[in-house]
Amino acid sequence: MLAKRIIPCLDVKDGQTVKGINFVNLTYAGDPVELGMKYSEAGADELVFLDITASHEKRSTFVDVVKRIALNINIPFTVGGGISSVDHVEQLLNAGADKISINSSALKNPQLITDIANRFGNQVCVVAIDAKFEDTKWQCYINGGRKAIDKTLFEWAKEAQDRGAGEILFTSMNHDGVKSGYAIEPLRCLHDYLSIPIIASGGAGSVNDFVEVFQMAKIDAALAASLFHYGEIEIPILKQELHKNGIPVRLT
After folding, report:
1. What is the predicted pLDDT for the residue at 120?
2. Active-site option among 45, 130, 209, 220
3. pLDDT of residue 8
């Protein structure tokens, strides 16, 4: 059985790591390079860097920050935010990224998923989906959760897979930053519906939340931000507890 992955996420705005609740009320959480080094040394399996206002502000991800993080870590590194072309993907891969994450640009131009997969391989393309449960369905949002779009979670995830996505990173906007646990039901449905890995995001508040999402939703990786940024859970301790609960993880 493949080891389950623990992935710290660096939401970056103006070159600094921030964290909010339900995608608003952002507060400063630290320097992204220093945090990336800390998590790499602590045994994180991967790192995700998201330039969270790039799409809304219609600009590209900070390549210089990507370079600095890549030079200081030794784990796989996914970059997202404002990525709208194959050339931009190539630029980020050359800067040190291992994978790229697309969200708003993929919903606006689904062909981009196929173009990236054909050029660099499916494993490079992570499709991130921000969705909110409202009116009995999981509604997809773009531009950092600012604008609803005419797609729902499951139909869009299936289309993304069919177009060549290598992984789905699903963030429940209802759970984001609330620390009441992950969105187990839709994550389990995604796992059952798709054949590619699913990364859970939004809602981690305790070690037990990680145990539950792996045991109940059967997903491949769990992402969290503020818990790690503010030292509420240490990655080595988290992995030891997962191991005790029979969840396969890479122990350092």
Report:
1. 98
2. 130
3. 93
